[in-house]
Amino acid sequence: AFWQIGLVQFFSWFAFLYMWNYTTGGIAENVWSVDPMNTTSPEYQSAGNWVGVLFAVQAIGSVLWAMVLPMFKSAKVGYSVSLVLGALGFISTYFIHDQYMLFVSFLLIGCAWAAMLALPFTILTNSISGKNMGTYLGLFNGTICLPQIIAASIGGVLLSLVGGAQVNMLVLAGILLILGAASVFIIKETSAEKADK
User: Fold this and answer.
1) Overall pTM surpassing 0.85 (yes/no)
2) Which of 14, 33, 52, 71 is 20 to 30 A from residue 45's alpha carbon, by CA?
3) How does pLDDT run across 139-192, given as a tens digit for each residue?
4) Distance of CA 103 to CAs 6, 63, 110, Å?
């Protein structure tokens, strides 16, 4: 379960690093029609300010979705559905040119964020015994850090491959979340109590 959940984590945290790195430039391009390299322009500054609002909307979406997640009978289904909703949010930013419509995108991204913060740890802790839990949870942090290190190291190359438009990196983030959602179903949930017997 550790490695299987780690694969989902790989795609998920890869995607979110690109959100943090490229949202301001992508929104500046797509909504304010400004060169994202012109970071001193008033339009870019307006885009940056609006991204702060969008991240607040994402946080609200995350809190609301966290109340929905317990209604799923299967943690895996809830996890996968959440990542798909987040993927739709990322991909939709490419097609949206109105700053207020982006609220919908970031509410959906919040769904993925809520699941990422809770469900991997839930599934993992259910599958390990108490005597090993601290070790495994410590090592599990590597499934958060490593994808971001890799994503940061190749981000410039990927940006050039997708045409240099930063909003395309948000679409890529959406595709990565879809891969993560598909990977959820390879996780073999186990019970530590059953394994000990």
Assistant:
1) yes
2) 14
3) 888 888 999 999 999 999 999 999 999 999 999 999 999 999 999 999 887 655
4) 30, 15, 10
